[in-house]
Amino acid sequence: MSIFNSLPPAPIAPKKPKQDTRHGITRTDDYAWLRADNWQAMFKDPSILDPEIRTHLEAENTYMKAAMADTAELQKLLFAEMKGRIKEDDSSVPVKDGPFAYGTFYVTGGEQPHYFRIPRDGDHKDEASRQVLLDGDKEAEGKAYFRLAGIDSSNDHSHGLWGYDDKGSEYFTLRIRNLETGEDLADVIENTGGGGVWAPDGKSFFYTLQDENHRPSKIYHHIVGEPQSADRLVYEEEDPGFFMGVGGSLLDDFIYIDIHDHETSEYRLLSTRDLTAEPQLVAERVEGLEYSMTEGGDVFYILTNADGAGDFKIVEAPVTAPGRENWKDVVPHTPGKLILSHMAYARHLVWLERKDGLPQIMIRDRATGEEHAIAFAEEAYSLGLQGAAEYDTDVIRFSYSSMTTPSQLFDYDMATRERTLLKTQQVPSGHDIDDYVTRRVFAPAWDGETVPVTLLYRKDTPLDGSAPCLLYGYGAYGITIPASFNTNCLSLADRGFVYAIAHIRGGKDKGFAWYENGKMKQKTNTFKDFVAAADYLHEQKFTSYGRIIAEGGSAGGMLMGAVANMAPEKFAAFIAAVPFVDVLNTMLDDTLPLTPPEWPEWGNPIDSTEEYGWIASYSPYENVGAKPYPPILALGGLTDPRVTYWEPAKWVARLRELTTGTAPILLRTNMDAGHGGAAGRFQRLEEVAFEYAFAIKVAGRM
């Protein structure tokens, strides 16, 4: 393409054929050598990466920099715009918990959050009253990558449990801080999932250990002051196909052990009255049965899809006998009304549901059974239910925003139904909502379904097909991409772009069936829906073919790879962040962190010939063909345990080998980070500015 002139020769990865035979089918992978044999150790110490692999990745980075050199000033401008929309010294509204209220703030120029507390009814705007518990900028000094996992105070508020990852590999180290002196104790807990749950007496806590394959396979009990080697194993999950986490109840009566994959769950409970007891099973795992729990005094409230409740229902069971045989419907199943989460307080039951693609918060008075909803009137919006840190309360907290409306934070009195606006997101450089339009449109799919698409554009954007469009998609794991306020995408809208989110199958935007119809055997519906969204935007002249830049990350990056193979001629470019594009090889490698837990989402190609065939039919890496691909930007992270760096590296090598076009295929590997990219708030903006600069360059809007 003419916009990429005078590029040096692109790196050519050497071919080192490796054969693999499964189900009588033999495949040859020329680029399998890019997978480091010592990946487990390398995630903890990136310096031991094979020099040949490092040399290739660095050559790719050099080529990428040459291709994007003329966007250097644009990247700086975009970064300045995005940074200008952030209140640099922003602070949260603290959450009340016992004698204190806890919150976070940032300092001007700072990358990391600072955690603080004030007296319960103190003024959080009075900086002199803040007690800083954890200075993220100080902890991050001298580290190329640093991500905090927050800090959780003990019940007596004397100590805080905090965690950090300084490699990007998501192996977190836990420390214990004396909140009076600000000093850390000698305890150092390595290789954890990032958090823990205090026992009520504040003398011990529970945490999840990540094994050598980066799976949360064990729950341990740590006594403050003891070495990690002395920690007691509380529960070990022997099935590598299940994730595991540990949590606590607001009443501090139970420690929850949550074991689940993408379609099956199981809870085990440990009463805090006897921390040495064996965790008790609630309802044994049954394939396809999901449930989650919250405590409501003498009962548990359980959100579940049991008994054919595809869009979920809420049941209750006695605390003394929470087994499935005692589950009694409280909020019955209503098809088309998907219950997403639930919380219980002394006098109210609260749940977040989605109907017709839009969320609403439901409140039930536990004594009378009377219900009411918190809902809004915009065409597309996002709600966040934060709840409360205390059980005996009538006040919960929630947030509201839309693509045009900055986030608003409310306290809501469930008894009086009064809402109190606590904070409105500030945009220091200015934002006039009347300059923008947000819409929800519906694109016809190939099978008669309609795909919701959320749009944002300036009022003065011509809708005659001439506008470039950034079309974002994800479509996996039931995750719904919210229609929330995003200050970054305003930089595209202000340059005449239509910013669009395709709410494709694989998410739960239109109920649980929307998810089920975009996974396993039906996975290709996700890709077809995305193309249908592009077709509709073209037909309705919001944009036109050849002006649409597609973007997605992780499983959304797999979407990018699949759509690039299916319909490259309809898109101006693809941006694939940490893209899960080597699906077949990854699902065939049961040593990788997420492979066994992911089989219910994609299929198990090791055991099933049929499921092997599903994945092989669309896996982006396997299906790269001799066709003209548009410009493609792939982004990876060296220590990413979720989508390993070699997936985008292999994909780019194969694309570059087979494309019949002249458009550049670019790979940018962050050699200091993992799945989420840079951890600092401004470092992350630099990455977004880079991606947007690519989109603007391709669109000819520089």
Automatic annotation (TrEMBL):
Keywords: Hydrolase, Protease, Serine protease. Residues 484-700 form the Peptidase S9 prolyl oligopeptidase catalytic domain. The keyword Protease applies. Pfam families: Peptidase_S9 (PF00326), Peptidase_S9_N (PF02897). One of its GO terms (molecular function) is serine-type endopeptidase activity. Residues 1-24 are annotated as: Disordered. GO terms for biological process: proteolysis. Residues 11-424 form the Peptidase S9A N-terminal domain. Transmembrane segments: none annotated. Belongs to the peptidase S9A family. This is S9 family peptidase. It comes from Metarhizobium album.
